[in-house]
Amino acid sequence: MTVSPDEPEVVVRLTVNGAAETRSVSPRQHLADFLRDELGLTGTHVGCEHGVCGACTVLVDGDIVRSCLMLAVQADGAVVDTVEGLSDSGEIAVLQQTFLARNALQCGFCTPGMLVTAADLLRSVPEPTREEVREAISANYCRCTGYHAIVDAVMAAAHGTEQKP
Amino acid sequence: MTEVVPAIGRSIPRPRAKRLISGRGRYTGDITARRTVHVAFLRSPYPHAIINSISADAARSLNGVVLVATGADIAQHCKPFAGIHRLFKGMKAPDQLPVAVGRACWQGEPVVAIAAETRAIAEDALDLIEIDWEPLEGLGTPEKAVAGVVVLHDKLGDNIGYDGVTASGDIDAAFAGAAVVVQDTFRFGRHTGVSLEPRSILAAYDPSDESLVVHESHQCPAQQQAVFADLMGLQEHRVRVVCPDVGGAFGLKQQLYGDELATCIIAKMTRRPASFIADRVESFASDNHAREHVVEARMAFDPDGRIRGLMIDDLFAVGAYSQYPRSSIGEASHVAALTGAPYDIAAYQARVRMVYQNKPPVGHYRAVGHPIACAVGESLLDQGARALGLDAIAMRRLNQVRDGSGPHTSHSGFVLNGLSVEATLDRVLEGFDVAAFRKEQAEARERGILLGLGIANFVELAGTGAPYYGESGAPVTAQESCLVRFEPSGQIRCHASATDQGQGTDTAIGQAVADAIGVFFDDVEVISGDSMACPSGGGAWASRGASAGVEAAVRAGRAMRDEILRLAGLILQRKPEQMTVAGRVIRDASTGAELVPLKDVATIGHYRQHLLPPGTQPEMSMLRSFVPQNQSFLTTNGVQLSVVSIDPGLGDVRLLRHRVAHDSGTVINPMLLNEQIRGGVVQGLGAALFEEIRYGEDAVLGTGTLMDYLVPLATEIPDIEVVHVANADPGTTIGAKGAGEAGTAGAAAAVLNAVNDALALIGASVNTLPITPERVLAAIDQVTREDQQAPGNYK
Amino acid sequence: MKPTSFSYHRPGTLPEALALLSEYQGAARILAGGQSLMPLMAMRMARPERVIDINRIDDLKGIRDAGDTLTIGALTRYNDILRSPLIAAQMPLLAEAIGHVAHHAIRNRGTIGGSLALADPSAETPATCLALGARIVAQSTSREREIATDDFFDGLMSTALEEHEILVAVRIPKRPTALPHAFIEFARRKGDFAQAGIILAPAHDGMPENRAVIFGIGPTPWRSAALEAAFGGEGFAAAPKAALKDELNVYFADDEAAAFKLPIVMTLAQRAFARLKP
Questions:
Q1: CA–CA separation, B208 and B132 (whole Å)
Q2: Which of A119, B376, B567, B608 is deepest in the core (most CB within 10 A)?
Q3: Buried (b) or exposed (e) across B721-747, using 16+ Cβ within 10 A?
């Protein structure tokens, strides 16, 4: 990678989806670009780069954060989990199943962030109301679904019932 | 073996969604190529300015910069283009180039392109470019543009790109003899689509055979292939456009963008793959915009509430250029076509003017023109009911086009397929108790809350036929095609020209082909979005997937089934018409007895042709096409009902309930259909209450980020009820109708009517969208002032 | 939308951070939670040559009971405040206000000190600290000083903090738990910055005066003399509309803006005072 003059790279060591990673990065690279461009984890999407849309939501040390609002170097020593890791571990399998069954996605661009956010909600509030689901996902823009199906899918995952559309 | 159950009519989940929920989507920005250069554009900071000179030496010498190209540099590799639609006689459009040359005409117009090793370095280089600008006066309002304060393009003579009148009946007599005439001036804010995936393109040029391969987040790969080839002077069969997973499009990824063409040219100039991904700030400044109409409208009534006549004058303010290749005229033409369309109106006159101003080009955003037509017509109807003291629902019933009356030529001269306006209105009111609502409204009033109920009928252009673009001169087809392959495994692959950005078109096509052949849905794979791998066709726009796209698939599927049965007949020495395909086997049509596995027929067709009778040539794939040949648009209809509450102290409108009844014809996949409609509703609710790209009088952009262009979020939106009337389209085998526009077409009008129903309690009204707290408070303030002369009305 | 390039420093202690800040005065920005600074950098509205990341300085984290006051370290994140039993018991107004800040993912990173130092006029935290009579603790290599929030917000996104100082904590007088308060804001969407907000905090032993703060409208949150005059006695019934209009006209010469803002402020004020009643 070519770098600008006067831009020394910094070594960052972190755990991503359970694997230890070491990379030399430009300080100005945000975590979302790092995950996508350096690690090839393109499930984390970049929708606005100013912390509004929620498409880049990942877990850092177990907490959901906007990965566009964190520098990659700030994740040095951290444990980062992305939608790919949560998929492979089976951690969000139930939500994925209800999202699919309920068509809680159309273009799918918001979906990784939406799943990470919904999984975080269900960890702290296992049996949410529709209002609680709406409030939790209000941090994540979806331009396709109208949200209704997403709320249905999260409710179905939480309450173990497959709701009919 | 399980029995095969028809796939059509079932809520089958989308196969493509499986990768999208696993973080394994393949969007344009996810695709990498070695030695890619990353492109950024210096965009005009002025709405209108002469470019006296550009100094780029410092940018060129920055480490990591590969190319700095001005508009003139880029222009050497393509020809200019103008968005003229030849169906609209007298339409004028200026020539444009991918990157501005000599003058910038909108804030955000690309002026210099930089290709660098990373996007960050390209942006660093932008900072080093110096331009000697000479700012000119900018046109920032429709009124200023039409007045010709400045003439944007000398060759056009004025700023009016189109001025046309549609008329029927005796309009003067209709108004002269009216019991009541209502009139209003409606203003609609400027919008944009806000696809969550920004516009993205990756172009690779191979000089050895002069071929261009483009991955692009776009709805129409075939159109883009034709456009890139034509403008860059390449042979079209050496241009391939792939639209992989697309992160939302909504019409904004339907036409050509100068910065995307410039990226293809940069790939040619640098002989390296070139990637451009718009960031969110440049998306607001450069994505297609939409709406921005000022409509003066009048409606004349008889004493019993019958509509006598309708007059509209639509001033439609586009950008500095007409979008290419489909032009920007669509919105205005649809306003003229659709205003009042659910009703029998004897006399009609619509004048539409499209004017140029210093803003980004206007394109086709979901439900092109429909929300404007619907809001104007439905609001006037409510105003008429109020003026006459009649029930607005009864007035709709009095005036509606009758169901079952067959094709009907509307007052705007459009042939509308058998509508079901009466049935959809009845359906939306099922389970809604208007009298109970009025009681609730009175009780809420006591608590200082204003509740309102709004209803909006709409007619929808869902599926475009051959004449509309056939007459335009643009390389845009209304035809869809599907290639069905009977694979050696006995399974099916379809290559569709219709594309899918999440609507579920691929799934619907898979369902249609599964049923047409008689196989399991899971044994059908659908491939789309590739101008080389798929037959040429329209792509995705104007709700064509379920009508034209599915019809082509049905025809190809049936042809494939016939060929499979012909081969089976030769193998089994039976008549083809005595057999059926049933899942993975062929059965006797009358006894149901299993005759032969489908796979065996495939094996013989692909590998063991010597076993067939002499002279037999198996056809293992079938291509069929479909175009609505003689009708400009397929049509359908629906109605929306909205309940809102207004907090008069804050001017705050909250959505309490929203209900849609739609005629989608035969329903292919209820789940996908309902989500299409809901998603469309929410975009319409955004238009009603939140979304507006603000510009100053001088066309300086005031809305730059997602912080200030407000898109509805989950907390602002109620659950949305969707019900259907299934009035099958007689023009296709399955009879499905488009539904992609439906939600957006009527939602804003229903909310506008609900807000005005609430505000009528205190004698106020609004006529500008979005209905912001400022606008509600201003409306309340106005009646409060009036009340100072007549106190006591407003508590 | 990528930031300009910068050198990155991650001091482990406050003295190190202060030394760096002192060395690169004018060229460095302190990076706390980053929820506002990162967007500004992405849009190149902030172009620091050096970024001093204070996230690893543990001394700046946490909430301490200091007798009459609570001291909240600058790097305490919103969600740490929301989860704090001390805050829930002693400072429910602050918890209520922070409940309106953005969304959960933002609150996981955003810090109270960052919000105060950035001083966004629409943000909940600066206005609430002003209403609570809080004092800002600023540290430089040479000294620590306290600045009353009344004197801290001195212009649009501008504070009394000097270039070589780091905001290390905020000290807030504890409020008697039975004392009522009112926090009310009007935002278009859940989690958005307020279009307008009002906070009412009646006086107590640790805060001798009734405080009323208006935010989301002017370049800074401000204590409204008109509303503070409405505490007690006649209360809000003696509507201070003219006085409020005068306050708004400091920022809005143009009648139209005041015509929109004034009704909203009046409505919010009425409702806020109603909440003070037992």
A1: 39
A2: B376
A3: bbbbbebbbebbbbbbbbbbbbbbbbb
Q: How many structural domains is chain B composed of?
A: 3
Which residues of chain B are within 8 Å of residue C190 when distances are taken between CB atoms?
Answer: 713, 715-716
CATH number at residue B602: 3.30.365.10
For residue B149, what pLDDT band results from cuts at 50, 70 and 90?
confident
Q: Check CB contact under 8 Å for B781 and C259.
A: yes
Under 8 Å between Cβ of A53 and A63: no
- With an 8 Å Cβ cutoff, is A36 touching chain B? yes
Residue B668 lies in a domain: yes
Give the alpha-carbon dihedral of B202, B207, B211, B215, to 10 degrees: -10
Domain limits for position A124 = 92-159
Residue B529: give the domain boundaries: 17-23+479-626
Taking only the tens place, the pLDDT of each residue in C59-77 is: 999 999 999 999 999 999 9
Q: Where a domain ends, among B575, B591, B626?
A: B626
| Spatial CB neighbours of B254, under 8 Å, sequence gap ≥ 6 | B218, B219, B220, B288, B326, B363, B364, B539, B541
What confidence tier does B256 reach under pLDDT thresholds 50, 70, 90? very high
Instruction: Give the closest of C6, C105, C191 to A66, CB-based.
Output: C105
pLDDT in tens, B96-144: 999 999 999 999 999 999 999 999 999 999 999 999 999 999 999 999 9
Are residues B282 and B319 part of one domain?
no
Chain Cα centroid distance, residue B232: 27
Query: What ipTM does this complex have?
Result: 0.96
Q: Is residue B503 part of a domain?
A: yes
Domain count within chain A? 2
Q: What is the pLDDT of residue B404?
A: 87
Size of interface A-C (CB pairs under 8 A): 86
- Judged against a pLDDT cut of 70, whether residue B738 lies above it is answered with yes
For residue C30, give the CATH number of its domain: 3.30.43.10
pLDDT given for residue B785 in this prediction = 75
The pLDDT score that the predictor gives to residue B791 is: 39
Tens of pLDDT along B414-430?
888 889 999 999 999 99
Distance CA B580, CA A52 (A): 55
Is the CB of B280 inside 8 Å of chain C's CB atoms?
A: yes
Q: Report the residue of B675, B678, B715, B719 to disrupt the A interface, i.e. the one with the largest count of A CBs within 10 Å.
A: B675
Confidence of residue A1 (pLDDT cuts 50, 70, 90): very low
Task: Note whether B589 and B500 are same-domain residues.
Answer: yes
Q: Which other chains touch chain A, taking contact as 3+ CB pairs less than 8 Å apart? A: B, C
* CA B45 to chain centroid: 29
CATH label of the domain that carries residue A110: 1.10.150.120
Structure tokens of B247? 């992160």
The SS3 assignment for B203 reads: strand
User: Which of B682, B686, B680 shows the shortest CA–CA distance to B739?
Assistant: B680
Question: A113 in a domain, yes or no?
Answer: yes
Same domain, C101 and C145: yes
Report yes or no: C5 at the B interface, CB cutoff 8 Å.
yes
Task: For B691, name the nearest residue in chain C, comparing CA atoms only.
Answer: C188
Q: Do the domain assignments include residue A129?
A: yes
What is the average pLDDT across B205-233? 98
Same domain, B556 and B619: yes
Say yes or no: C78 and C168 in one domain: yes
CB contact under 8 A, C109 and A70: yes
Pick A138's closest partner by Cβ from C5, C34, C103: C103
B790 — pLDDT class (breaks 50, 70, 90): very low
Residues B752 and B782 in one domain: yes
Q: Are residues C204 and C149 in the same domain?
A: no
- pLDDT of B793 reads 33
DSSP state of C267: H
In chain B, the percentage of residues whose pLDDT exceeds 90 is 94
CATH number at residue A37: 3.10.20.30
Q: CA B752, CA B644: separation in Å to the nearest integer? A: 10
Same domain, C161 and C246: no
| 8 Å CB contact of A139 and C43 | no
Counting one residue from chain A and one from chain B, the pairs whose CB atoms sit within 8 A come to 193
User: Which has the higher per-residue pLDDT, C193 or B755?
Assistant: B755
**Within this chain, do residues B646 and B783 fall inside the same structural domain, yes or no?**
yes
